[in-house]
Amino acid sequence: MTVFYVAQDFVDSTWYLQQNPDLAAAVQANSDWTDRIAATHYALYGAAEQRAPNSWFDATYYQTQNSDLHYLAPHQLLAHFTQHGRGACA
After folding, report:
1. DSSP state, 4?
2. How many CB atoms lie within 10 A of CB 37?
3. Domain spans of the chain, in order of start
């Protein structure tokens, strides 16, 4: 699953959990899996809920600045950014 692997590389698990305390309790019980849990949550739910994967990527901004990406689902925007648009997001 490409989206998951891209997310795992670009989701800052520490930052993501600080911004989403509702997930922190679940992750504390599985601290060895922190990176995987944060990335999986982002790929499956967080992107659609407009949660940011890290402090520097804003999916809404990225899609707005690249109107040709209107067809992409929220979870696909980070994958697109990592593969094609690294300089496009401020």
Report:
1. H
2. 20
3. 2-84
50-81 burial: b if 16+ Cβ within 10 Å, else e: ebbbbeebbbeebbeebeebeebebbbbbbbb
Entry pTM: 0.73
- Rounded to whole angstroms, the Cα distance separating 54 from 16 reads 6
Rg of the chain over all Cα atoms, to the nearest angstrom: 13
pLDDT, tens digit, 9 for 90 and up, residues 4-37? 555 677 889 889 989 988 888 777 766 667 778 8
8-state DSSP, 70: T
Cα–Cα distance for residue pair 59/47, rounded to 1 Å = 8
- Single out the residue of 56, 49, 48, 46 nearest to residue 82, CA to CA: 56
